[in-house]
Amino acid sequence: MRVLLTIVGLLGFAMGTLWFLQGAGIVRWPASSFMLDQRIWMLWGALLMAVGVGLFRWGRRLG
Hints:
Layout (H helix, E strand, L loop, with lengths): L1 H23 L15 H22 L2
């Protein structure tokens, strides 16, 4: 369970970071993404990053 939470937390943080940066227009990959320059994706990305950090920390505390 500890390893699973740690991995899911890291993946959530990474995906949230990508969403945030796409929403901000900093990362323009893929070029056809519907998230580009859409500020709402900055919010969703920040929320997913926070959940990812929480899952990561929870997984690290289980040990």
